[in-house]
């Protein structure tokens, strides 16, 4: 399954349990299957119980945090994934049993859960200092990617004579194999230390550069040989200047921490005035409601 589907925190299935009733769900030569029969069958399964747990959670999240998640935010995130997968996006959705509508519903649920994490998790000074150790602010670079080391040497020789941005841009257009950036002089979108689109070797080399500097030896990665030039590096500065960014990174990390999510979901449900009307399902939230640990990033 694709990484971005896994990242939806496992609370976002979009099934709906049919309400108890005599309406026919399906008919066969052997008779009809009614909503009540389907419901009775589903509620006895682990998947059916999981769906109900998720429906309950989404209802409470929507009430508590719905005003903080806009349609614009959902659309923006959706378009990011759509752009990332390009022409294969619709196929990926289909393979995972999703439509545009249901995927957007999942994205919204995930954003609601993140608002709950921001609300329920206390970030300590210790956690901020820990995150600060690896923190690097967003930088903007241009790069030249080539397949062979001798080509990289040829580019580096040319940069020794003229390391200006104009010449780097010219060389990128001539030599770079990165077809998405070469015509723009190899310029990449700004990134920080949480970036996952570049290799760790690439990031380490990039963050060492000051404005106008370039890597005087090619960086060997799984993509080939990279030559990187720094366009804008604001410098790390003081921790107090980056508190908002540090908190954002911690919250992003929390979204993939099952222990933190368990605690947050427990708090959300405990405050949600949830009442289970079906006696067969009375313990469906017991694993969450019995959780008493406090949420904190420390």
TrEMBL record:
PROSITE patterns: PPIC_PPIASE_2, PROKAR_LIPOPROTEIN. It is found in: Cell membrane. GO terms for molecular function: peptidyl-prolyl cis-trans isomerase activity. It is a lipid-anchor. It catalyses: [protein]-peptidylproline (omega=180) = [protein]-peptidylproline (omega=0). Residues 1-20 form the signal peptide. GO terms for biological process: protein folding. Its main location: membrane. Belongs to the PrsA family. HAMAP family: Foldase_PrsA. This is Foldase protein PrsA. It comes from Lactiplantibacillus paraplantarum. The lineage of its organism: Bacteria, Bacillati, Bacillota, Bacilli, Lactobacillales.
